Amino acid sequence: MDRRPGLPCRGFMSSHADDVDRRRLCGNGLAVSGALALSGCLRRSQSPTIRIADCHAEDADPALLRACRRGMQLAQHEINGRGGIRSLGGRPLQIRAHQVPSSAASTLIGACEADLYTGGGGSHAADAISRHANAHGHLFLATLAMRRASPSPAQAPMTFYLRSDAQMLTRMLAAAVRHHEITRWLIIAVDNEEGSQVADVFRYALQTDVPAACLVGVHFYSDGYADPVRLNQEIVAASPDGIFSTVRGEDVRRYLAHPGTAAALAHRTVVSFSRPECNDAAHDWHGVRATRIMTGYDPDDDRDRSHRAFIQAYRNWYGGAPTYPSLIGYVCIQVLAALLERIGRLEGKHLAAALEEMAFETGAGPLIMQGGTHQASFGAWIGQAEAGGFGGPTTWRFCDGLLHLPPHAFGSTDEN
Questions:
Q1: pLDDT at 180
Q2: How far apart, in whole angstroms, are the C-alpha atoms of residue 238 and residue 264?
Q3: Cα 65–chain centre separation
Q4: CA-CA distance, 55 to 46, in Å (whole number)?
Q5: Higher pLDDT, 101 or 401
Q6: Could you tell me if 15 and 78 are in contact, meaning their C-beta atoms sit under 8 angstroms apart?
Q7: Is 347 in a helix, a strand, or coil?
Q8: At a CB cut-off of 8 Å and minimum separation 6, what does 85 contact?
Q9: For 115-134, what is each residue's pLDDT tens digit?
Q10: Are 302 and 363 in contact (CB under 8 A)?
Q11: Would the pTM count as exceeding 0.90?
Q12: Burial class of residue 2, CB neighbours in 10 A (0-12, 13-18, 19+)
């Protein structure tokens, strides 16, 4: 393994492709450690590098983490290659990756000194990082975690969210069906906070943007188990033209494998709410003759010069196409580097004040950080697969998050 002097490195990947990543991580200052190594983090009064701790829970999806960190690594390589953060004397960025047990996240995160925090993937990780960062005056830019109603920006002034939240993604999907001739809608949502929220947002969007729309029913199912028989009974009884569904992951695979599902969904439009990086596999929908509309990512979208440059740089560096988490990681480091370059200091309170309403040029295109909610205008791609029995998306369209930012008061009654 290649190593540059003075850069601690512990590998966290094991495949051949990941070994290549590990060498590059070491060669460009991305020090990786596991939960057991957190207590041994370097403690120095002054560091020649700008230390970014990328923290996630142990139960976070390893494929998503690897993809996100690849994007972070690429951005770090580019920024350090241009001379680091010049307003801070050319100091380079150094990203340290950590995964911690959810039960001891706060303690272990606190054992590692860093100038900035990112991450938040997995159970309770974002809450633990947010508490630590705000208690110690460090900026926390969440990447894989979505913004929620609590804590509010007033309660956590150092915490900001990069990726689109649930409300934004729902608005994007609602906008995608605005001009479809669909009048009868059924909502199927998981019975939890997020499910209730997105159901309300979609219902409100229908009422305001599609006056002819009629909501024929709302069905909530238990988190972790969507009964295929009952769902199909609900669909047949309601006879909707369109279905807005939050069923995903193992639930959607089990549902689509049920022998009665293809007939229940035939000739209907299914709008699937899911995180873009977790989009349901196309092969799961094989044989289901329904039009699908979903969030996802188009690695061939060259509509924007910055995104085109990101795709090319990623392909040159890794030899393959990027994914949505890769873009999130890349943009995260771009945002932090631009913020540091502009402010020229590391104190969290100054960084947080400057980040509010700040605009950026990123690999995802122009981006702003909304001050009232600490939510970035990160967009997503909306895909549509026509009813043909093959399942794969035929068209992708970028949806600018700026058009779908939440109201400044999260959970405003405007959304209910």
A1: 87
A2: 11
A3: 11
A4: 22
A5: 401
A6: no
A7: coil
A8: 50, 79, 91, 92, 93, 337, 340, 341
A9: 999 999 877 788 888 998 99
A10: no
A11: no
A12: exposed
